[in-house]
Amino acid sequence: MTDYLLRATAANHSVRAFVTQTKNLVQKAASLHHTTPVASAALGRTLTAGCMMGAMLKGEKDLVTLHIKGDGPLKGIMVTADHRSHVKGYVYNSQVELPLNAMGKLDVGGAIGVGTLRVIQDIGLKEPYVGQIELISGEIAEDLTYYFATSEQVPSAIALGVLVDRDYSIRQAGGFMIQLMPDATEETISMIEKKLQTLSSITSLFEKGQTPEDILQYLLGDLGYSILEKREVQFECNCSKNRVEKALISLGQKELEEIIEEGKEIDLYCHFCNKHYTFAIDELQQLYNKAKK
């Protein structure tokens, strides 16, 4: 089944919601980066959040980047999403192995440790908007909830989940985000809180055969919701040899000359998708000639 996201509103537009299923795109990321289960969970949760935050973007060239840095063995996570909710990302250390936490779950918080979350929104302004918080748990959903409350003053309920099978494949993945607008009433808030208290984990709902539509109905069915959009989401990296060539040219003549003088071909790779780009000496010479123009 194709991964997709629902964008909805409820309670006379005083609530906005996103629900997404991301099993396939998380599997693609895990396969590209050869992640261990806890690394898959950390990356998958962040990619899922990126899909939903991408759906908040307005312009065609807008981008949002989630950058998590911690003192745990995972070291960090980088995820970027565009306005179509197409995402790409990687973890700094894909081979982290940790015992399960006290609840018998993958210890994402322990893998990340103490650190920061930066949200960088490139929305066509002169400078990107950057918000930063100290991580409160490293479990990502809680950290993003805190980010929205403090940096954007938007009360939010966020759930992110990745269920990894015994063979390290991704069994389920997805999430939801419910956000309260300033005109949300106390009654609306109370109804949502009661629903959230009775909800099991997002991956267990998918395991039972629930769809994003089912989850949205359960959460907001009593609040007169309407689905504004259903969109496909996917892992997509826009790197290419041409883009890498432009990056090399931008280094300038001096640096390119030094590379050529070493007399060896160079191999560059994209952190987001692990694709390698090899440049022979004659190709580097051609780029040097272009840099001179």
Description:
By secondary structure, the protein is an alpha+beta fold. It has two domains: 4-235, Hsp33 domain (3-Layer(bab) Sandwich); 241-292, Alpha-Beta Complex (CBS domain Like), CATH 3.90.1280.10. The chain contains ten helices and 13 strands. Strands 7-6-3-4-5-11 form a six-stranded mixed β-sheet, covered by helices on one side. The protein has a five-stranded antiparallel β-sheet with strand order 8-9-2-1-10, sandwiched between helices. Helix 9 packs antiparallel against helix 10. The longest helix is centred in the first third of the chain and has 18 residues, at 37-54. The protein is globular.
In short, what is this structure?
This protein is of the alpha+beta class and 293 residues long. It contains ten helices and 13 strands.
Primary descriptors:
alpha+beta; 2 domains; 13 strands; 10 helices; 293 residues; Hsp33 domain; 5-stranded antiparallel beta sheet; CBS domain Like; 6-stranded mixed beta sheet
